[in-house]
């Protein structure tokens, strides 16, 4: 370790942390999380429940197709949850067809409305987003829907909905941003 320089880097980080712990500097937040997916939400809640002053940033840069969403991350908004609900719709269609074998009859043609299914799924996802927002508020986590940038050690800068630049400080900054798929 000493020859590679990693030891010196590790000691530097250790000393900085020790000096921070022993300093009188006051931060606005104990921890700020960047990312409102499952990891960021869980971490924010645990920290808040342990008495920490916590803020959570979540902002989705619209995709090339203009897609953006609320709290919950990729899985809740455009991944696992909508996919599983659409899969469930396909299972129901198959079960309706198979029900004849079990003695069920249905008169006329059974139809499916893609738009109605999509609207219902989107409303369900919005209810999850709202639930996460309420849960953060109940746990006294400050939710900020803005793109956060780490501008200095312990400092985050963001633009609010009124296009004003704001800064805040935190003892710890935790990244829980997840990923977006690459486009070929």
* Main pleated sheet: 6 strands, mixed
Q: Which strand order spans the largest sheet, edge to edge or round the barrel?
A: 3-2-1-6-5-4
Overall shape: it is elongated
Counting helices, strands and paired strands, the structural category is alpha/beta
Helix content: 40-55%
What number is the mean pLDDT? 88
CATH topology: FAD/NAD(P)-binding domain
CATH architecture: 3-Layer(bba) Sandwich
What distance lies between the first and last C-alpha atoms, to the nearest angstrom? 40 Å
Radius of gyration: 23 Å
Number of strands: 6
Name of the level-1 CATH class: Alpha Beta
CATH homologous superfamily classification: FAD/NAD(P)-binding domain
DSSP helix count? 5
Total domain modules: 1
**What sequence of helices (H) and strands (E) makes up the elements?**
HEHEHHHEEEE
pLDDT < 50 stretches: none
Strand content: 15-25%
Protein name: Thioredoxin reductase 2, mitochondrial (Trinotate prediction)
Domain FAD/NAD(P)-binding: 29-183
GO molecular function: flavin adenine dinucleotide binding; glutathione-disulfide reductase (NADPH) activity
Family: Belongs to the class-I pyridine nucleotide-disulfide oxidoreductase family.
């Amino acid at each position: 370790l000493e020859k590679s320089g990693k030891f010196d880097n590790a000691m530097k980080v250790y000393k900085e942390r020790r000096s921070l712990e022993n300093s009188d500097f006051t931060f606005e937040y104990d921890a700020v999380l960047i990312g409102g997916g499952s990891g960021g939400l869980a971490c924010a809640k645990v920290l808040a429940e342990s008495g920490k002053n916590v803020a959570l940033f979540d902002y989705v840069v619209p995709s090339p197709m203009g897609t953006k969403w609320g709290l919950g991350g990729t899985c809740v908004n455009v991944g696992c949850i909508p996919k599983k609900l659409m899969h469930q719709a396909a299972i129901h269609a198959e079960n309706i067809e198979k029900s004849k074998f079990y003695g069920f009859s249905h008169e006329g043609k059974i139809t499916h409305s893609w738009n109605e299914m999509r609207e219902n799924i989107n409303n369900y996802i919005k209810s999850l987003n709202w639930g996460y927002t309420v849960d953060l508020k109940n746990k006294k986590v400050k939710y900020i829907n803005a793109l956060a940038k780490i501008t200095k050690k312990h400092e985050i800068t963001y633009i609010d909905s009124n296009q004003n630049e704001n800064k805040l400080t935190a003892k710890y900054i935790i990244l829980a941003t997840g990923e977006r798929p690459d486009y070929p």
